[in-house]
Specification:
Strand content of chain B: under 5%
Distance between the termini of chain A: 16 Å
CATH architecture of chain A: Orthogonal Bundle
Strand order of the largest sheet of chain A: 1-2
Shape of chain B: globular
Number of helices of chain A: 13
Number of domains of chain B: 1
Distance between the termini of chain B: 36 Å
Strand content of chain A: under 5%
Largest sheet of chain B: none
CATH class of chain A: Mainly Alpha
Largest interface: A-B, 114 and 106 residues
Order of helices and strands of chain A: HHEEHHHHHHHHHHH
Largest sheet of chain A: 2 strands, antiparallel
CATH architecture of chain B: Orthogonal Bundle
CATH class of chain B: Mainly Alpha
CATH superfamily of chain B: MetI-like
CATH topology of chain B: MetI-like fold
Structural class of chain A: mainly alpha
Number of helices of chain B: 15
Structural class of chain B: mainly alpha
Order of helices and strands of chain B: HHHHHHHHHHHHHHH
Shape of chain A: flat
Oligomer: heterodimer
């Protein structure tokens, strides 16, 4: 938006038309491949429609009644996963940013290397942690047994499986938060920290009263984004646990996939998707409000 | 300026205390040990990995697992598919998104805010919510199980990404350049293609690379819209390894390593752009 005022005065109506015309391809593409599919799932959700049959029957809100119980159950699981897989990367990322924002040898190399977990495709992250936590040959249980300790067998246990997928996602996400926090810390006004030190502030007080207020906005924003992305996460859970054991790690995305491509119930899966969309609208609304408030300040 | 900065720097960047160093060490281990284990397993012999007294280092390293990837026709097909589809996604996203970004950055018209809102919200729609409708749509147009199907599906999440990334870069272009072009009698189209786009080539490449990486990493659409012949590596890996009773972990880790390698190369090439891209929130975690 820089220079908007000077430019606006020289923009003619034909400039505006040109601007609109070059926006059209992207707008049309996005309407067709994203907005229309989103709305048309509303229609599908009202039909008993299966991949196995060509014809479909109108059932009204029947599909919603069918999937409601499942939906509520999976929302709980999804919320747990999304919240934990947001909180831990935030703590880890901010801590690492604070530690790396110091005079320490090899700082840039460390920062580069610590980006690797973020770089790997989700599937690779999931396979890697599934291997690390493998019940029979996993390296964690192996090292524990070398130390004379009992194995964890995380993936076979409902709570353990949730812990495992949260750890994997935390490992995958913390570099993102770390980079954002580090970028903020490196633009901190030196005078404020200096003044605080002269006034006798301890290191913790400097963090609490100088660094933290600056970090709060940007980190909250990425945390909310991370939460929204985690809420729609598919690959971490699907590859590591397949939603199990039982339904203990079945998130909405995994459940929708299984309904549509495991049971071929497209109508029911769409109903699940519409319920999810309603929920998402609230979270997204919160994000947009926050975004606007931060942009203004 | 540098003098004042130096004094400040000492306080901004204090040297770490011993507990701080210890904590950093532990966190770095958490970050890097899994990468080590990925690489180490890929270099281990199968019998070593499953032995009761299995070693923690590749004591007798082998390249068999890595070579095995290139002897597996299904995985090689997936690799080729990944290259074609991710490149296609990157090209489409940057072409269409580049025009959009220029429009949002330098022009004002009715509906501009609505368009921006659509992409801002669109960025947050999870793929699973589009999955069924996309499947039905592609199926009825006969595009299911083609490269086009995947490119279309990937564009749903790469287009908002490239639009916002490139808009940020174009916002930094001074309007005087456009005014000067106008004074020189250049048409709007010529200004765009001969002045604006050449100036943001590094941005276009960065956006293309981000789109490439996101397409390369997707699992959900690759698993459902590509079919067995056109599936990309994430789906290929999943199909090849997830249903095995006793998974061949060294081969899987080798294949994972090969799948990740192009992304590491891109990262090294673009490292300095990554930080600003990540910090601007244009890129997901």
């Amino acid at each position: 938006m820089t220079g908007g005022t000077t430019r606006r005065t020289t923009l003619s109506a034909r400039d505006s038309l040109f601007g609109f015309m070059i926006a059209l391809p992207a707008v049309l593409v996005f309407l067709v491949i994203a907005i229309y599919p989103l709305l048309s799932s509303l229609g599908t959700s009202l039909y008993d429609q299966s991949l196995l049959r060509p014809e479909r029957n109108f059932v009204g809100v029947g599909n919603y009644a069918t999937v409601w119980g499942e939906f509520v159950e999976h929302v709980g699981t999804t919320l747990t996963f999304a919240a934990l897989a947001t909180i831990f990367p935030v703590i880890l990322g901010v801590t690492l940013a604070m530690l790396l924002n110091s005079r320490i040898r090899g700082r840039n190399v460390l920062r580069g290397l610590l980006m690797l977990p973020w770089l790997l495709p989700g599937v690779v992250v999931s396979f890697l942690w599934a291997w690390i936590f493998n019940d029979s040959y996993g390296v964690v249980d192996h090292v524990l047994s070398l130390l004379g300790l009992p194995g964890l067998s995380l993936l076979g246990d409902p709570v353990g499986a949730m812990a495992a997928v949260v750890i994997a996602k935390t490992w995958n996400s913390f570099p993102w938060i770390m980079v954002v926090a580090l970028a903020v810390l490196q633009t901190l006004p030196g005078e404020q920290l200096e003044a605080a030190t002269i006034d006798g502030a301890t290191r913790f007080q400097r963090f609490r009263f100088v660094s933290l207020p600056h970090l709060l906005g940007p980190v909250t924003l990425v945390a909310v984004l991370e939460f929204i992305y985690n809420f729609g996460n598919f690959d971490t859970v699907f590859v590591m646990t397949g939603g199990g054991p039982g339904d203990s790690t079945t998130t909405l995305a995994v459940s929708l996939y299984q309904l549509a491509f495991g049971s071929y119930e497209l109508g029911q899966a769409s109903a699940m998707g519409v319920l999810w969309l309603v929920l998402l609208a609230f979270v997204t609304g919160g994000y947009l409000l926050l975004n606007r408030r931060l942009e203004r300040s | 300026m540098s003098g004042a900065r130096d004094i400040g720097e000492g306080i901004v960047n204090p040297s770490l205390s011993i507990p701080g160093r210890l904590l950093l060490f532990v966190l770095v281990l958490f970050g890097l040990l899994p990468i080590y284990w990925l690489t180490a397993t890929a270099l281990m012999k199968r019998e070593d990995v499953f032995a009761p007294d299995r070693p923690l280092f590749p004591v007798d390293p082998t390249l068999d697992n890595l070579v095995g990837f290139f002897r597996n026709d299904a995985l090689l097909d997936s690799l080729l598919n990944s290259i074609v589809v991710s490149t296609g996604t990157a090209v489409v996203s940057v072409l269409v998104g580049g025009l959009m970004a220029y429009s949002l950055s330098k022009f004002r018209y009715r509906g501009r805010n609505a368009i921006m809102f659509m992409f801002l919200v669109g960025q947050l729609i999870p793929g699973a919510l589009l999955l069924i409708s996309l499947y039905l749509m592609l199926s009825s147009t006969g595009l299911l199980y083609t490269y086009t199907a995947l490119i279309v599906a990937f564009t749903t999440f790469t287009l908002p990404l490239t639009v916002f990334l490139l808009k940020g870069i174009m916002d930094a272009l001074p309007d005087e350049i456009l005014e000067a072009a106008k004074v020189d009698g250049l048409s709007r189209t010529a200004t765009m293609f001969r002045i604006v786009f050449p100036l943001v080539v590094p941005g276009l490449i960065t956006a293309a690379m981000f789109a490439f990486m996101r397409g390369w990493s997707d699992l959900l659409f690759a698993l459902t819209l590509a079919g067995p012949d056109k599936q990309t590596l994430p789906a290929g890996l999943t199909q090849a390894f997830i249903h095995e009773g006793t998974a061949d972990w060294p081969s899987l880790m080798a294949a994972s390593l090969i799948t990740s390698l192009p992304l590491a190369v891109i990262f090294i090439l673009l490292q300095r752009y990554f930080v600003s891209g990540l910090a601007s929130g244009a890129v997901k975690g």
